[in-house]
Specification:
Blueprint: E1 13-17, H1 24-35, E2 40-46, E3 51-56, H2 63-72, E4 79-87, H3 92-103, E5 108-114, E6 119-125, H4 131-140, E7 144-145, H5 152-188, H6 203-221, H7 223-233, H8 240-260, H9 262-265, H10 276-300, H11 302-308, E8 314-319, E9 322-327, E10 336-339, E11 348-353, E12 356-359, H12 361-364, E13 370-372, E14 377-378, E15 383-384, E16 389-395, H13 401-414, H14 420-448, H15 453-467, H16 471-490, E17 493-495, H17 498-504, E18 509-513, H18 514-518, E19 519-530, H19 536-547, H20 553-564, E20 573-578, E21 582-587, E22 590-595, H21 597-602, H22 611-619, E23 623-629, E24 632-643, H23 647-656, E25 660-664, H24 669-679, E26 686-687, H25 695-704, E27 709-713, H26 719-724, E28 727-731, E29 744-746, H27 752-787, H28 791-794, H29 800-819, H30 843-851
Parallel strand pairs: 18-25, 18-27, 25-26, 27-28, 28-29
Antiparallel strand pairs: 1-3, 2-3, 4-6, 4-7, 5-6, 8-9, 10-16, 11-14, 11-16, 12-13, 12-15, 17-29, 19-24, 20-21, 21-22, 22-23, 23-24
Helix pairs in contact: 3-14, 5-6, 5-10, 5-30, 6-8, 6-10, 7-8, 8-10, 8-15, 10-29, 13-16, 14-15, 14-16, 15-27, 15-29, 16-27, 16-29, 17-27, 19-20, 23-27, 27-29
Length: 852
């Protein structure tokens, strides 16, 4: 085995982590495979660190080739994800430009850039992905890397503060530009009745004043367009800022030439005119549009902000028998935490003492508080309503359920739906095409257009540049995904990303695992049938006293039922359990036998008389447990895995949506059919006696029939089936709600969330299609109008100021349409929490209002 050297990496050296190596033979196999590759100079594989250090010639072989070689040898190279906050993107053209730049970096497998969240998510093989190289690629493309906060919360605060500052700056500049525009227009059209008419002795004098007013707007308010256009142009790129900068500069510079050199331009038309007001009104209206857009985009990310604000700032921990209030970040695993009525629970934990009802609606969407007592889990950021609880912290910081949910929602909002790819591809060619169309428009109007040729040519060319809007195309999908996933999180529906959101609306078949999904997943006593010599309470008390030593779930259900009724459980002697049959013990000097009818027969107890009742209970999907006392049948206790209270409504909702619903279970068919009948499913939609390992095969069989299948299960036992399905929906409860997240996770365990998730997907995809339609239709219709196709019918060209207003409104309309998803309520009766409420940052709304 080669020994790994500790020399620092050279420019042609790469270190790749390798999975699957177990011995020295594996090491040598990997080394030999790599050494055979052309361009590889040396290889050192270390089994202890599971890493390969490879010196290679990048002109002959690249990192992707090396990874493929390792994988072909039967080993794996883990992937990693890097997220970069990118500044300076303003439109879909920017998105595609950043993606292209990052795709060229060594080791990159895939790139997704999101305009709404201003982030780039890069996936590549661990060891071959260099963050500094990725950042350099973004900078070379003409954009900037925004400094990240030390924590997710500080980064979110920083982004919010930056956007609020951006709102204030945009508002100030927009107001100033529009005010100057109004003044310039008043100067041009000064009415005769106002102070005796025009105060200027010549047009030249008025032009000087207009130049003085317009120049600060062009340079100060319009500087952001120039800065971003120059940054892109320096790297041979173009974006929307390029169009605005060229359009406004053409109007301003021509007007400046007319102001200072009118005699040189007099030949172009009878009387030189200036377009200062055109340049300033374009800048003003576009800034208004960006202010409205920024304001709306701030609202699209409100779900993340609200979730982060749920956590309390401090916690009350018990140290040396004293309560001490400490910052939340100082709470450690194992700390004893006390929470009083009305306070938020600081972190995830297990209750040690106390009883209370906890409001979990801000995370699960469930409206009713959940009772908590010793041994129950509590989730951080939920609200303790009635009693005082003392619990032991089991998860803190980034490991809590709230932190997992925030990360999952953040990842989803930063993801890209597949439908966006077409818009991004078109946008990458959009700006160059617009520049060509503008130049052609100017040439046609100047060479063959009616008089005044130059003025018409300039006006039409500027209108084409200004009205073109790739922004709307770039915002069409990500804003809808952001709002849709955020609204889902507020309702206890965690959606993994844009791809899952897009796939969900296509589902036509839903497969439900029975245990833990349709039913509670926890057996409960549903009937106590004494034979007449004993009453129900005595029969249940004696049975529970017998079962107290049993570990079987059916026995635990009997014990739990007795305790819930406040019955006294006595000690038992001579306890004996027969696997698969039953148990026996002596309680209060009585010989008790509990189990199947056959087990009682083996114990010398005939159970013929209650057998009919037992068969009747079994036909209802219940398990009859026969009880014998001192050699005689004393009655039957029926135990069943009861339905969740929402299952009937949830399945009815799915069927009302037109989806084919199936139930899958490992239980016997009689029990499964009985449960299906209770929830309104026909017998032919029940697949019973299926082993966990066979569930994925059932999903594949349904898919082979051309169905698009969603599998709903607990996320653990059903993992293979969830992965096989077109959409995996995991039922999650407790503090692990996001840990085993599938494509979609239902936090509260409410089955009605399945129908709501599919409905939310449908609404979101409808919104995306509307956005894309209007974004494309806007450009397809209005660019020809700006070029002058209506001139033969109207005798007028489109005013560039109106073009600027239309362009600004196009982006705003897309974002506003996406925001309508915040009003999604789901079906009647389903959890429809209005979302997390912020107890910590009441200043945010005030700051936002101030910025506005």
């Amino acid at each position: 085995m080669s020994i790994e050297t500790q020399t620092p990496p050279t420019e042609h050296e790469i270190r790749l982590p390798i999975g699957g190596m177990t011995c020295a033979s594996c090491v040598r196999r990997v080394e030999r495979s790599l050494e055979k590759k052309d361009g590889v100079k040396s290889v050192a594989v270390n089994l202890a660190t599971e890493e390969a250090t490879i010196d290679f010639d990048p002109g002959v072989v690249n990192a992707a080739d090396l990874v493929a070689t390792i994988e072909s040898a039967g080993y794996s190279v883990p992937t990693t994800t890097v997220t970069l906050p990118v500044d300076g993107m303003t439109c879909a053209s920017c998105v595609r430009r950043v993606e292209k730049a990052l795709e060229k970096v060594e080791g990159v497998q895939s790139v997704s850039v999101n305009l709404a969240t201003e982030t780039a998510t890069i996936q590549g093989h661990a060891g071959s992905l260099d963050r500094s190289a990725l950042e350099s690629a973004v900078v070379r493309a003409g954009y900037a890397i925004r400094e990240s906060g030390e924590t997710a919360e500080s980064e979110d605060d920083s982004l919010t503060d930056r956007r609020l500052a951006e709102l204030r700056n945009l508002k100030i500049k927009a107001v100033a530009a529009l005010a100057v525009s109004a003044l310039l227009m008043f100067l041009m059209y000064w009415p005769d009745w106002f102070f005796g008419g025009q105060p200027f002795d010549s047009m030249q004098s008025m032009n000087y004043l207009m130049f003085a007013l317009a120049t600060p707007i062009q340079v100060w308010a319009g500087w952001q367009f120039y800065r971003l256009a120059f940054a892109a142009g320096r790297h041979g790129q173009m974006n929307m800022n390029t169009l605005v900068a060229i359009g406004t500069s053409a109007a301003y510079l021509y007007s400046t030439a007319v102001t200072f050199f009118p005699e040189r331009l007099v030949d172009h038309h009878d009387m030189p005119e200036v377009y200062y007001e055109t340049a300033t009104v374009i800048i003003g209206l576009i800034l208004v549009g960006r202010w409205l857009e920024a304001r709306a985009r701030l609202r699209t990310s409100s779900a993340i902000t609200a979730l982060m604000d749920l956590a309390p700032a401090t916690a009350r921990v018990i140290r040396n028998d004293d309560e001490v209030e400490i910052p939340l970040a100082a709470v450690a695993v194992g700390d004893l935490v006390r929470v009083r009525p009305g306070e938020r629970i600081a972190t995830d934990g297990v209750v040690l003492s106390g009883q209370s009802a906890v409001d979990e609606s801000m995370l699960t969407g469930e409206s009713l508080p959940v009772e908590k007592e010793s041994g129950d889990e509590v989730i951080g950021a939920t609200v303790n309503t009635t009693g005082t609880l003392t619990f032991r912290a089991t998860r803190v910081g980034k490991d809590t359920a709230l932190a997992q949910i925030i990360k999952l929602v953040g990842d989803a909002q930063g993801s890209k739906a597949p439908i966006q790819r077409l818009a991004d591809t078109i946008s990458s060619y959009f700006v160059p095409i617009v520049l060509v169309l503008s130049a052609l428009t100017f040439a046609v109007w100047y060479l063959v257009g009616p008089a005044p040729e130059f003025r018409n040519a300039l006006q039409a060319a500027i209108a084409v540049l200004i009205i073109a809007c790739p922004c709307a195309m770039g915002l069409a999908t990500p804003t809808a995904v952001m709002v849709g996933t955020g609204r889902g999180a507020e309702m206890g529906i965690l959606i993994k990303g844009g791809a899952a959101l897009e796939q969900a609306h296509k589902i036509d078949t839903v497969v439900l695992d029975k245990t833990g999904t349709v039913t509670q997943g926890k057996p409960a006593v549903v009937a106590v049938v004494p034979d007449g010599r004993f009453d129900e309470s005595l029969l249940l008390r004696l049975a529970a006293s017998t079962e107290i030593g049993s570990e079987h779930p059916l026995g635990a259900a009997i014990v739990r039922a007795a305790r819930e009724q406040g019955l006294t459980i006595e000690s038992a002697t001579g306890f004996r359990a027969t696997p698969g049959k039953g148990v026996s013990a002596v309680v209060e000097e009585k010989q008790i036998v509990i189990g199947t009818r056959a087990f009682l027969a083996e114990s010398g107890i005939e159970a013929d008389s209650p057998s009919a009742r037992g068969a009747e209970l079994a036909s209802l999907g219940q398990t009859p447990m026969y009880v014998g006392i001192d050699g005689n049948v004393a009655g039957i206790i029926a135990v069943a895995d009861t339905l969740k209270p929402d299952s009937v409504e949830a399945i009815g909702q799915l069927r009302a949506q037109g989806r084919d619903v199936w139930m899958l279970t490992g239980d016997n068919r009689a029990t499964a059919v009985a449960v299906a009948a209770q929830v309104g499913l026909p017998e032919d939609r029940v697949i019973a006696e299926v082993l966990p390992s066979e569930k994925a095969g059932v999903v594949e069989r349904l898919q082979s029939e051309g169905r698009i299948v969603a599998m709903v299960g607990d996320g653990i036992n059903d993992a293979p089936a969830l992965a096989t399905a077109d959409l995996g929906i995991a039922i999650g409860t407790g503090a692990d709600v996001a840990k085993e997240a599938s494509d979609i996770t239902l936090v509260g365990g409410d089955l009605r969330g399945v129908g709501n998730a599919l409905d939310l997907s449908r609404q979101t995809m409808r919104t995306i299609r509307q956005n894309l339609f209007w974004a494309f239709a806007y450009n397809v219709v209005l660019i020809p109008v700006a070029m002058g196709v209506l001139y033969p019918f109207t005798g007028h060209l489109l005013n560039p100021g109106l073009a600027a207003g239309a362009m600004a409104l196009s982006s705003v309309s897309v974002v506003t349409n996406s925001l309508r998803l915040r009003g999604f309520r789901g079906r009647s009766g389903a959890p429809t929490s209005s979302g997390p409420r912020s107890p910590q940052r009441p200043d945010l709304e005030l700051r936002t209002a101030t910025a506005q």
